[in-house]
Amino acid sequence: MKHILTRLFAAAGIAACMATVSNLTYAQQPKLQQVYADNTYQFTGVAVSAKNRLFVTYPLWSKTYKYAVVEVMPNGTAKPFPDAAMNSWKTGEDGSNKWVCVQTAYVDADDYLYIVDPAAPMLNKVVGNSAKVVKFNLKTNKIERTYRFTGTIDQSSYLNDIRVDTKKQVAYLTNSGTGGIVILDLKSGKSRQALQNHKSVHSDSNFKFVIDGKEFKKQGQPMKFSSDGIALTPDGSWLYYKPLTDKKLYRITTSALLDEKLSPQQLAGKVQDLGNVAVTDGMIFDKQGNLYLGDMITTGCCA
Q1: In the chain, fewer beta carbons within 10 Å around the N or the C end?
Q2: Which pTM was predicted?
């Protein structure tokens, strides 16, 4: 499959996708501009800095693999980020300070880059203590801090996506392996996991993950991915999330997630079921509070 990254342009800011666009005339629809293409390797994460630096991440899900993280240059070429050495992990090596199986990249409101490395090649077990989130200062291209999750996640976990609240200095991550929302204090480095036993972070057992008429299976069994896509409202008050192999979308107030005095039962009572939406593993809010979701079934975007 050819992996093409496109950028939406609209005269009056961000245009809503699919449902809204269907009501517009052709002339009003946003134009697509290709900014990067990769015909060989599968990428999953994309992040753009305030100065329009483009970063792309590649998970180690197959033998067709070269780099974990690249920066796309203005001429369309890609170079390993931050360097080739960090992208040189091999099976059997210590992955504590190298990329093992990177899932996503995210740039926060202060223009810091976060790389999420679940360190679970081929979607198997986490390699040692290699699961991490690495924060980069893009002014220097140097590592600002590495966050690890010993005692918070187990070897079957898969850190998937991240959103950062720079005002509260808190990051939220989804765990698509065993299900859960990981809450990371960016100042102290301490983390904990919430909602592990709640239905909102787990896949629908009856859901069939079918794309282009083919059901996704691993070793003959249907593929199941727990809490995956995640989005934070512009004011940081609500966290939206959903399992990948499920149509349901959920949300919870961040004040509830951050209240460590709440019991698991009390916290579960704060979750809101928003009904069925697209099958997505990626979503984001714009500054106006509109939520955009990728649709893996239609290979489109909806809002």
Answers
A1: N
A2: 0.88
